[in-house]
Specification:
542 residues, alpha/beta, 8-stranded parallel β-sheet, globular
């Protein structure tokens, strides 16, 4: 059996001058988004790295899976210091992935298949190769060019120490000193992430106007929305004060972290929303690492973002109590502002759920159960590419690691490469149809042969078959309606809730089989044992 690909090749679309998105269409409120990490999805060019033509070739598969929308991780022009999150031109496609014409063709064909297309936007920082930053380095302190970024004089003798004690998310200080045009040691610039990602100065109106131009550029080409990277960033506290970093960890932040979640960020999102309102039927979802529910809800007020990523479910341990707490918190975070909840179990920054839930057969069973819990909940669901195949994280050799956190941490933090290994499509040996090259940009383990799309399409008991069935039922059945849930009484180690439309979801996180709630069985993540729901399993009933 061959893996599903697009069955027709459409002509390359010309860049449109205007797009009708459909007034009043809030399609995102119950959509299933599919996150594509382009480097790892499908390689059409044969260089070992995934690209936009590879995505286009696999649209038939995504249509078969039943998703409503795609979220493309960064494909804009970039030197790839952080695999695209260091953008040097936000209004162009990097040649590694294709061209503007390739992107136009992908959007056109996805729309023909009734699939929306959203893409990553990175407003907190640029690449150090961006023309603005190149100009800033060539200009003098205090110049308009430097005013687009956050440059400061150093502290200590001769300004040899960073302006404050902030660390980078990737390790090391969040400041890098520049050499001035005359060759002397100069000012320092702020980079919350890698040194190749200088933070923009959002107090400068030029920065906002440039972002608005980028938004309109892509919306005019037919893009349906954006995922806002580091949506809780951008605004910085006045004076950039020092902070007590006793609890600082790489790749994490607390709610009192001065690098993030400053009040000024909300005016930035209001500006983004005003532009989005010019294009009815488009949306923006923010990456919001904020735990306090009230502060989280501020991001999705009616004049700010349409959706906000809530990561509580992705961070919850497998168990009835932590899962229920994550669900309750996520619903409470949006209730006060009338927002739509979002659900995800993994993404390009988060360890894959099969591994996170224990790995092996247990992790696989729990991941199947949690998929049913996730799809049963009201709101928008985000599926990371490969989750539908039950892919685990890969313990990669040190020599192939590419995440900047690996080098910046002095080889103590392995980074996120383990969840970014390419998708296995077909065959019995790496690279499993991902590329025609001999190897992929990150190596694929030989033991993934049973996990290929080809193998799972033929297996009714596969993870892929479960995802297809769940998405289809979620789309077609009237019981998946209502914005609220009611909790049932459950045996110890279990949980059950009912959608107002009539769907019942039961999770058995205990060690022994338990009776099902009353109702007609609709779907189950594992075969029943003498009529009982086995351990590490979930069921849908109506």
């Amino acid at each position: 059996m061959t893996v599903v690909r697009s069955q027709e090749t459409r002509p390359v679309a010309a860049a449109p001058t205007a797009v009708e998105h459909g007034a009043g269409d809030q399609w995102w409120t119950n959509a299933v988004f599919y996150q594509i990490y382009p480097r790892s999805f499908s390689d059409a060019s044969g260089d070992g790295v995934g690209d936009l033509d590879g995505v286009r070739e696999r649209l038939g598969y995504l249509e078969l899976l039943g998703v409503d929308a795609l979220w493309l991780s960064p494909v804009m022009r970039s030197p790839m210091a952080d695999h695209g999150y260091d953008v040097s031109d936000p209004r162009d496609i990097d040649p590694l992935f294709g061209s503007l014409e390739t992107m136009d063709a992908l959007v056109a064909e996805a729309h023909a298949r009734r699939i929306k297309v959203t893409m990553d936007l990175v407003p907190n920082h640029t690449s150090d190769r961006h023309p603005w930053f190149v100009a800033a380095l060539a200009a003098a302190p205090g110049s308009p060019e430097r005013g687009r970024y956050i440059f400061r004089d150093g502290r200590g003798v001769n300004g040899d120490e960073p302006p404050n004690n902030w660390p980078s998310i990737f390790g090391g200080p969040a400041w890098t000193r520049v050499t001035e045009p005359d060759g002397s040691p100069g000012q320092w610039y702020l980079h919350i992430f890698a040194r190749e990602q200088p933070d923009l100065n959002w107090d400068n109106p030029e920065v906002a106007e440039d972002l608005y131009a980028t938004l309109r550029f892509w919306l005019d080409r037919g893009v349906d929305g954006f995922r806002i990277d580091v949506a809780h960033g951008m605004a910085k506290p006045e004076g950039l004060p020092d902070h007590d970093w006793d609890r600082n960890e790489l790749m994490r932040n607390d709610d009192d972290d001065p690098r993030f979640n400053n009040p000024g960020v909300h005016e930035i999102h209001r500006g983004i929303r005003k532009v989005m309102n010019e294009y009815p039927g488009t949306m923006a979802v923010g990456e919001i690492w904020v735990r306090d529910n009230e502060r989280f809800g501020e991001y999705i007020r009616p004049d700010e973002l349409h959706l906000g990523f809530n990561f509580r479910l992705a961070q919850a341990e497998f168990g009835a109590e932590p899962v229920r707490a994550a669900i309750d918190n996520s619903l409470a975070a949006v209730a006060a502002v009338g927002g739509t909840p979002t659900w995800t179990l993994s993404n390009h920054d988060v360890e894959r759920e099969v591994t996170r839930y224990g790995g092996g057969a247990v992790g696989w069973a729990r991941a199947r159960a949690m998929a049913l819990v996730e799809f049963a909940l009201p709101g928008a669901v985000f599926v990371y590419n490969g989750a539908e195949l039950g892919l685990p994280n890969v313990d990669l050799p040190d020599e192939v690691l590419q995440d900047p956190a690996w080098e910046r941490s002095g080889h103590t933090e392995r980074g996120r490469d383990g969840c970014r290994v390419p998708i296995p499509w077909q065959g019995d040996a790496p690279p499993f149809g991902f590329t025609s090259a001999g190897t992929s940009w990150l190596p694929m383990p030989a033991e993934w042969a049973p996990l290929t799309v080809e193998a799972q399409l033929e297996d009714v008991g596969s993870m892929l078959s479960l995802y297809r069935a769940a998405i289809d039922l979620r789309t077609q059945r009237p019981e998946f309606s209502g914005t609220e849930i009611d909790w049932y009484g459950s045996p110890p180690g279990c949980l059950a809730f009912r959608r107002r439309g009539g769907l019942i979801c039961a999770l058995n996180a205990a060690d022994t089989p338990v009776p099902l709630p009353p109702g007609q069985l609709l779907l189950v993540s594992a075969p029943l044992a003498d009529g009982l729901l086995p351990a590490n399993a979930a069921a849908w009933l109506v």
